[in-house]
Amino acid sequence: IIMSLGAGASLPRRRSTGWKLAEEAVCRDDLTRLCPKNSWNNNLSVLECLQDKKEETEISTECNHLLWNYKLNLTTDPKFESVAVEVCKSTIAEIKECASEELGKGYLVSCLVDHRGNISDYQCNQYIHKMTSIIFSDYRLICGFMDKCREDINTLHCGSISTGEKDIHSQGEVIACLEKGLVREAEQQPGAHAIKDECKKSIMRVAELSSDDFHLDRYLYFSCRDDRERFCENTLAGEGRVYKCLFNHKFEEAMTERCREALTTRQKLIAQDYKVSYSLAKACKSDLRKYRCSVDTNMPRAREARLSYLLLCLESAVHRGRVVSGECQGEMMDYRRMLMEDFSLSPEIVLHCRSEIESHCSGLHRKGRTLHCLMNVGRGDAGAIDPNCQRALQTLIQEADPGADYRIDRALNEACESVIQTACKHIRNGDPMILSCLMEHLYTEKMVEDCEHRLLELQYFIARDWKLDPILYKKCQSDASRLCHTRGWNETSEMMPPGAIFSCLYRHAYRTVEQGRRLSRDCKVEVQRILHQRALDVKLDPELQRRCMTDLGKWCSEKTEAGQELECLQDHLEDLVMDCRDVVGNLTELESEDIQIEALLMRACEPVIQSHCHEMADNQIDTGDLMECLVQNKHEKEMNEKCLVGVTHFQLVQIKDFRFSYKFKTACKEDVLKLCPNIKKKVDVVICLSTTVRNDTLQDVKEQRVSVKCRKQLRVEEVEMSEDIRLDPELYDSCQPDIKRLCPNINYGNAQVIECLKENKRQLTQRCHQRIFKLQEVEMVDPELDYQLMRVCKHMIRNMLQCLKQNKNSELMDPKCKQMITKRQITQNTVTLNPLLRKACKADIPKFCQSILNKATADTELEGQVISCLKLKYADQRLSPDCEDQIRVILQESALDYRLDPQLQIHCTQEISRLCPEEAAAQEQTGQVEECLKVNLLKIKQEGCKKEVLNMLKESKADIFVDPVLHTACALDIKHHCAAIPPGRGRQMSCLMEALQDKRVRLQPECKKRLQDRIDMWSYAAKVAPAEGFSDLAMQVMTSPSKNYILTMIGRELKDR
């Protein structure tokens, strides 16, 4: 494709073998001025030196003419062909196409220039390199070029084709002019001329052949000579390196406009034919062959050669996990960045987005700003966009694939650099997770405004094609193929709506095992990650935006803050068109299962979650638990205004449809279908089910119609609804005028408005009064639904068992309830399960019972050992007042029922079975087993049991309440003779002993008998107990006011025995 064989002016005959250009008078001055002396002896060196001069005026016209004729003769001289045959003998044999060329017509050298990239022989390479530099200096020397492009050159007014009319330095402009014509045609610019196919091929071939050495693109070489010195001084020529260097500096301020224009033209040619980039074609040659990117026979050659086709084909291989060489991927990265940086390299955008550029994005050409401006228009943030322009933008984003590496998007990279350095510094540079990290920090204090805009502009397009998130594609491609009928990475169906594949994936992500056809675990994680991120902006949900565009304009045009648009659509759910209502309903249903999708709400509620709900938040999908937890903790001190508003909003949305409460829906779905069919609103479903439960309870039916799991969740919903009057729409609607009149400045939460209406019941309108009265009726039957009562009294309610224990022996106590309370007391009779005791005795336990604690491990149940220890110290009167009060209660309870004393049960089970079987079998325990053990002290064989009974005797001496049999027998005498004596510390026992000694006092016979029994028991104890075991009791006797009488009685007993 080189060397025209056309005739030219002959040179003088003196040009024989020894002739030198340097000796010609017409060029001597120019040579002396411009070329180093050591090059004068070599004609080709002289030629190379003189033809690379920039300005026309640098070389005289006569010298120019001489050089032209010399080059023309060179290209047609058979001697040069002979030299090529000699120097390139081995190379010609290797290249079949060149070996078959007919000699004598200049085609052989042309063929070798064509294949110069494959020439390995050094001498041949040098020779052909010299010939190439001569040939490319003038389009007329390129074989066949003039014949194929003559008409187009004339039509496009690209210059003269007559010898001598133009000097050689402007000849490169002819090709540059044709190249620009080719670009205008590709962009379908108005008035563009259709260049003939054979000329097109010649233009592209010239561009391909000049791809390795920028000297060969004469127009670019002269346009960028100064810029090359400025930016790429140290870049070696060859293999396209200078082009690449200049491309990288194209948008620098110091770059000349003429050079920038020439570079852009060359880049546009590369976009038309990737082979115009030497480095890309060379680096990706084997990968293109391996992945069959250039053998699709169904495609026209022009499309197959396009850069976009190469990028999509090789990117598809990378995304499928195939190996593409690092060198090729590096080149692809450069050209993907190039496409994102300069929109004009994509002819479809230039063609279809012309009016958008003129209206919104003029003057922003550099560094990808125009493209981002168009993307912003595409988001709908700056008016409508032509569908063809939208498609062209979507196609470009797929070709450039910035989702795989954010650095491809220079505008985004520059805008987000500071955010990446602070928020995402833990992620490797270029990792696709950087974009995910930026999304996680959207609307946080670390985000900057510019970055936010660029990020949302890009994410808008990534959201419309699931393949453009490389992590999602990697983890979900098999799921998408199985469940959503997807095609290959680089195949796009025009019939598939934007975002349809992702919608399909997220529908399957939340399926239960019973529903089947679920996502793989890895894919599910990615789908949730993206859902959580995209929920921040309705425009990142293509289906929602498409179906709700009209409603967004109608109801939500003023809602511009993050997250407000979806909230607005949910608020107007009943007003939305059917299509929009369905998609908003589905998304709300999804949120009820996984509220973490609401990223902004999660951020606002972080303090509450950390303090009260962190376990639910750690679950991959919280299945409604997290929102339930937030509702239950709405009025904790960690709750802030933003979180409270968000949680209440979600509650108000939930009442519109029972499907919006995931836990309620899951627990009660079957019950609703059976008992409340055709009811949709949640509040109506709750009323229907709760009415059924109440009716069944009142009628005492054997089997409740509402299932247990539904009744449990129904209770949660009823309690939640009682917290805010707005969650009961009928009540709220009935009382709205009254609220405005009587409770204008009262917050809705914490049932404050309901409480206000109750307090002003006499002033209510009839309609509101009826509703409030009905509410109070329900609350009387079921106090748990009285929110204020339950809230104010919650600490007392938490101590409900304590209250029941205190009233266990009341005449009003239900026998079954009494039995259950006793059961709880038996199973919970240890210090760790008694918070009141633990709190009251926090100083006494370590002081007196440390040895027991030392033996225990973290999960050991002490089985009453600590309580037994404290009981003994109670008898010794050594406990603090608070602890003494608690132990007194325990002593009183365990004195009535031996089962409440774990140590007694452990050590005396066998003795009780042997000595006291009838007492133990009694349905109601009133201390008879303890009495039996005391009476049979001498018969007890087991030492452990004997010790426990002695302890009981010691405890009973300290407080008559601990001896229920004696206390019952002497109740009247205590009232008559010891009324002024306070209980505790053995005072009332001493009072009764003095009364027994005093002959003037007549005690009740039963009391007298029981007192005598006690003296007998103490005497038994003195006899059988070890010295240290009964020494404390002896001490008590010695300090008693009745000590003489007691000792006399004990002495008499011992003497009799």
UniProtKB/TrEMBL annotation:
It is found in: Golgi outpost; Membrane. GO terms for cellular component: Golgi membrane. Cys-rich GLG repeats lie at residues 58-120, 194-254, 323-382, 384-446, 518-577, 638-697, 705-765, 878-941. The keyword Transit peptide does not apply. The keyword Chaperone does not apply. Keywords: Glycoprotein, Membrane, Repeat, Sialic acid, Signal, Transmembrane, Transmembrane helix. One of its GO terms (molecular function) is fibroblast growth factor binding. Its main location: Golgi. It is a single-pass type I membrane protein. This is Golgi apparatus protein 1. It comes from Neogobius melanostomus (round goby).
